[in-house]
TrEMBL record:
Enzyme kind, highest EC tier: oxidoreductase
Keywords: Oxidoreductase, tRNA processing
Any one GO MF annotation of this record: oxidoreductase activity, acting on paired donors, with incorporation or reduction of molecular oxygen
Listed name of the protein: tRNA uridine(34) hydroxylase
Signal peptide: none
Pfam families recorded: Rhodanese, UPF0176_N
Rhodanese domain mapped to chain residues: 126-220
Entries under SMART domains matching the protein: RHOD
Annotated family: Belongs to the TrhO family.
Amino acid sequence: MPYDVAAFYQFAALPDFRELREPLRAICAELELKGSVLLAHEGINGTLAGRDGAMGEFIGELRHGRLFGGRLDNLELKFSKASAMPFQRLKVRLKKEIVTFGDADADPTRQVGVYVDPADWNALITTPDTLVIDTRNAFEVAMGTFAGAVDPGIARFGEFKDFAARHLDPARHQKIAMFCTGGIRCEKASAYLLSQGFAEVYHLKGGILRYLEGVPEAESRWRGECFVFDERVALGHGLRERSVKDDCDE
């Protein structure tokens, strides 16, 4: 497959995020990358695709280049492949949040849930006293989820607060495990639940994509496919891509 795709994020203090936009766009354009990058005071979040080692050069610039000055040395990063360019253009946008939640209590730089490696995830979610929650939007859940996970039935991530207020209770739900596509939404959701008095909050490190990449299909508790926000539509075990053409051929 000729294109490398990188999904990345990090919560980090970027008070100069507005000034970073154009230099970052220039770096992406020079490397002929396409996709989307969000910048905010709280960090960076993006998915980009490119050819011939360009993605590795870009990630090296984020981690070690002068533009960010070492502030992105702890990127959560996942690579996959695409048979065709999965994005139409390059977008570098300024945002209030790198993933919209709308509550100051959801601050992963202050506190965050316990990260669980994919290799340990099955054991956690099959423990009887663990409530497993899919933090993604309802249409994403419909394409695939972990066996036994609760679907909050939300149309956008910001509604997770309302779901928690209606259905979750720190006294009854003392052990919660959450997951999302790449991990970023769970960072905020876990920070929020901790701020509301929940004692044990866990989340899947690297998200569903890291799990599908590393856990053998024969051992997997994942059912279906994982929706991704590009023209590949969804990925399966081993991060195999599914295209719109595949749907038409079925």
